Amino acid sequence: xxxxxxxxxxxxxxxxxxxxxxxxxxxxxxxxxxxxxxxxxxxxxxxxxxxxxxxxxxxxxxxxxxxxxxxxxxxxxxxxxxxxxxxxxxxxxxxxxxxxxxxxxxxxxxxxxxxxxxxxxxxxxxxxxxxxxxxxxxxxxxxxxxxxxxxxxxxxxxxxxxxxxxxxxxxxxxxxxxxxxxxxxxxxxxxxxxxxxxxxxxxxxxxxxxxxxxxxxxxxxxxxxxxxxxxxxxxxxxxxxxxxxxxxxxxxxxxxxxxxxxxxxxxxxxxxxxxxxxxxxxx
Length: 283
Prior knowledge:
Order of helices and strands: EEEHHEEEEEHEEEHHHEEH
Structural class: alpha+beta
Mean pLDDT: 90
Number of domains: 1
CATH architecture: 4-Layer Sandwich
Helix content: 25-40%
CATH class: Alpha Beta
Number of helices: 7
Radius of gyration: 18 Å
Number of strands: 13
Distance between the termini: 10 Å
């Protein structure tokens, strides 16, 4: 069976007083969620979306792509509930970039401008496309790449997980193999550190020192936004507990809309049972 070894790091940066980024890393799920800047309760949106996605992924049946779609839909409904509970949260939203495996297959869900990269044999390739006004204008030829840095609306997000419109994520299967590494990161890293330096850092470090080095690079470049990065390396191995670690806003339970919104029995999670069934059938 295939799973992840992983490391995760989140930092508020040098200019912001709070951290609206959230991340989760586990043996079968990696994700980054970035509360949309300037919107109400960004840390509530990102932390709650990370919580919902990680929990739904552990208890839901189905192929990884369908499970991620279900989790994002649930997160949307969850944010709607959060605004009903507190109208001051009106407008909250978050990006989400997540990779989920079931021991055999891996799926990617992406919405917003957090990014996912695949590192294989020394080369790094981006596997997501930004859902931003800038990307739309680049695609249409209305904006030149050399003008992006000075474009006044470069931070405008075209798609996100929100309480308003149902989200429209990009969903696809990934062909991963042992030794591959995935890098998921918020724009607090990718806006300041170019792809060439990302690649050399992922190549030259182990997982823990790699995420630390990436955060330090973003801080050295100004650290003007929250910074979150996760590196997961695909490995073959026996079934292990799917529970992982939360970082950033997701590590603070006060940021959750409702910590009991998704019910799970951690003593015998359904997803672990399903993974066990797959393991037995493969044997």
